[in-house]
Specification:
The complex is a heterodimer. By secondary structure, chain A is of the alpha+beta class. Chain A has helices at about 10-20, 30-35, 75-80, 80-85, 90-95, 100-105, 110-115, 120-125, 145-150, 225-230, 235-250, 260-285, 290-295, and strands at about 5-10, 25, 45-50, 60, 65-70, 130-135, 140-145, 150, 155, 160-170, 175-180, 195-200, 205-215, 220. The longest helix of chain A has 23 residues, at about 260-285. Chain A is globular. The N and C termini of chain A lie far apart (about 45 Å). In chain B, a hairpin with a 2-residue loop joins strand 1 and strand 2 (about 10-20). The longest helix of chain B has 14 residues, at about 105-120. The chains are: A alpha+beta, B alpha+beta. The interface of A and B includes residues 4 and 104 of A.
Chain lengths: ~300, ~160
């Protein structure tokens, strides 16, 4: 590993100054250091540690929604009752990132900027219309999460831009959501296939459905055909199946050590069906454990959905 | 270039001068001289390197030592009392056959301690979930789970 210089910043301004001079930010290190140890990419020559910057910490409520500081850890998100109630799919996702150790060190800002197509929180953030604030020495701009991810490990952020917070607008009343993933073990796992569903019900009718697929394409993205199959429907099993099949058809998975492309495509329909089923049940007021994934594989909800 | 830092490990301050790329695990083992935390996978998969950082379990193989400057670290060496009396979890691991080769044991004990600190009476599922970031290739986990149950029942 390289890394020749190091500063521990005390404020966002100090971080931006260091970044303008070429330093790269490090928070929990769960991607950066592991990647360097594993030979994926050496540590950047110049590091600016941001873990002490209090402006970047915490989760706050705003206009019925939430603002996640870049340093909010996955453990912080799972501990937030608002995140669990209003943005349940995000809590499902954060609850299964790595292990307890990863969730204590790993931050939402680092998770997003690492931009893995298999990251757990990406689908929920996109479906909840999350907006990232990017700051640099020359200004501030806001980018929707769907536009932030431009490729595997790539984002729309320019060099020198720091993600400072992620804002989640208030969801419509009657919304339920779920993130479900296919996994081989409960912890220290990343998605083989993941699916997010955010469903808003109006009476018995689906008023708005958001479906995103994870680890099934170069970037995590919503699937319009799947959403159209559910929108305006009565949330029947047939509509859910049609949406799940549309999600599988839209997937462009790779074959790797974790699963073949064919297997991933087949499981895309299964995971999407489970995510939609649980999202609908939650929209109807049903209580399902967080995270949804282990429950979906076990007896907690009778193996249904 | 080396940077000065102070690592507070098991209640004692250790001044160190280290390069930015050094991990907490390598500094604990190399400079501080505490070799209880182990390098297993060095990829944050196995949990053998786990320590408590400000009370929370962290994989020290993937945490930069300089980021731990001034913070409180507890390693496996910090579990027993000053007089060498074993922590109830350590005694329970011995009593229940939770140790075979011993390589995973420091991380298991740190994870178990973090669990009991936040949930003094976990059920078996909660114990298995809390320890699922720690791999053991010898015991089959049964003795480890029994040990955590026994230690929880005692406290």
């Amino acid at each position: 590993m390289s890394a020749q210089s190091y500063t521990a910043a005390a404020s966002v301004d100090e971080v931006l100054e260091a970044m303008a001079a070429g330093a790269r930010p490090i928070a929990g290190g769960t991607d950066l250091v592991v990647g360097a140890r594993g030979g994926k990419a050496p540590l950047p020559d110049a590091l600016v540690a941001i873990h002490r910057v209090s402006e970047l910490r915490g989760i706050r409520e705003q206009d019925g929604g939430l603002v996640l500081g870049a340093l909010a850890t996955h453990a912080d998100i799972v501990a937030s009752s608002t995140a669990c109630e209003l943005f349940t799919a995000l809590a499902d996702a954060s609850a299964i990132v790595g292990s307890h150790a990863t969730r204590n060190a790993g931050t939402i800002g680092g998770n997003v900027m690492n931009a893995s197509p298999a990251m757990e929180t990406g689908g929920p953030l996109i479906c909840f219309d999350a907006v990232a604030t990017l700051r640099s020495a020359s200004g501030t701009r806001r980018v929707g999460l769907a536009d932030l991810f431009t490729g595997p490990g790539r984002t729309a952020a320019e060099p020198g831009e720091l993600l400072t917070e992620i804002a989640l607008p208030a969801p419509a009343p009657g919304t339920g959501s779920c993130y479900a993933r296919l996994e081989y073990r409960r912890q220290m796992e990343i998605a083989i296939v993941g699916a997010t569903a955010v469903v808003t019900l109006d009476g018995g009718t689906v008023r708005d459905a958001r479906i995103a697929i994870t680890a099934l394409a170069p970037t995590i993205h919503r699937v319009a055909e799947a959403e159209q199959a559910l929108n305006g429907s009565d949330a029947s099993d047939a509509a859910v199946r049609a949406a799940a099949d549309a999600a599988a058809s839209a997937s462009r998975p790779i074959s790797d050590v974790r699963g073949s492309a064919d297997y991933r495509r087949a499981m895309a329909a299964v995971l999407t069906r489970r995510a939609i089923g649980t999202a609908i049940a939650r929209a109807r007021g049903g209580r399902f454990p967080i995270p949804a994934s282990p429950a979906l594989h076990g007896a907690v909800n009778g193996g249904r959905a | 270039m080396r940077y000065d830092a102070t690592l507070n490990v098991n209640g004692r301050a250790y001044p160190v001068a280290i390069e930015p790329g050094r991990t907490l695990l390598s500094v604990l083992r190399g400079e501080v001289g505490l070799t209880g935390a182990k390098e297993g996978c060095d990829d944050s998969e196995c949990g053998a390197c786990m320590v408590l950082l400000d009370g929370q379990p962290v994989n020290s193989c993937s945490y930069l030592a300089l980021q731990a400057d001034g913070r409180e670290i507890v390693t496996i060496e910090g579990l027993a009392g000053e007089d060498g009396e074993l922590h109830p979890l350590q005694q329970a691991f011995l009593d229940q056959g939770g140790v075979q080769c011993g390589f995973c044991t420091p991380g298991m004990l740190i994870s178990a301690k973090a669990l009991l600190d936040r949930n003094p009476s976990p059920d078996e599922d909660e114990i298995r979930l809390a320890l699922s970031g720690n791999l053991c290739r010898c015991t089959g986990y049964s003795g480890i789970v029994r040990a955590v149950q026994a230690a929880a029942a005692q406290s």
